[in-house]
Specification:
alpha+beta, five-stranded mixed barrel, 4 helices, 6 strands, globular
C-alpha cells in the first residue's frame, strides 16, 4: 500500500497517523489553490487576508460565546485557530458541523501572541483529502 493510502486509512480508522500528515500529500494542489501553510500565519500582520486549510481537530460553540464557533485545524506544519461568526455559520453550517478537512478564507487576527483567522468563507475539502468514509 502506498504511504499516502496508509495515512488516509490511519486517519479514517484511528483519527491520527504516526507516518505522515495528509496535507503533505495535498500540498501541491493546495498551493495551486492559494492555500498557505498554517505556519505562515506567524509572520503575517493583523488584517492580512489568507486562505489556509487543515484537518478539523476541535469545534467549540460555548454558550457564553453568543453563537460564535471556534474551530482548530491542523496541516503538516502547524495548528490554526478559526473564528466563525454567527452570520457566517448560518451560511456554512453543514461544513462547520460535518467536514473533516476544510479550507478557510479570511483576515488574520493576532493579539497577545494568539493568532486566529476570522472565517469569511469555508470550503469542504473532504473529497480532496480522501477524508470521507
Amino acid at each position: 500500500m502506498p504511504l499516502g493510502e496508509e495515512v488516509v486509512n490511519d486517519y479514517r480508522f484511528l483519527r491520527l497517523s504516526l507516518r505522515a500528515h495528509p496535507a503533505q500529500f495535498l500540498r501541491a494542489d493546495l498551493s495551486k489553490r492559494g492555500i498557505l501553510r498554517n505556519e505562515a500565519l506567524r509572520n503575517l500582520k493583523t488584517g492580512t487576508r489568507v486562505k489556509i486549510s487543515g484537518l478539523v481537530t476541535c469545534r467549540q460553540r460555548p454558550g457564553s460565546a453568543n453563537g460564535v464557533v471556534f474551530i482548530t485545524i491542523e496541516d503538516e506544519s502547524a495548528v490554526a485557530n478559526v473564528i466563525v461568526w454567527p452570520r457566517t455559520f448560518e451560511r456554512v453550517r453543514p461544513i462547520v458541523l460535518g467536514a473533516r478537512y476544510i479550507s478557510v478564507r479570511g483576515p488574520v487576527q493576532s493579539e497577545s501572541g494568539v493568532i486566529h483567522v476570522v472565517a469569511d468563507t469555508l470550503e469542504d475539502l473532504d473529497t480532496l483529502a480522501g477524508a470521507t468514509g
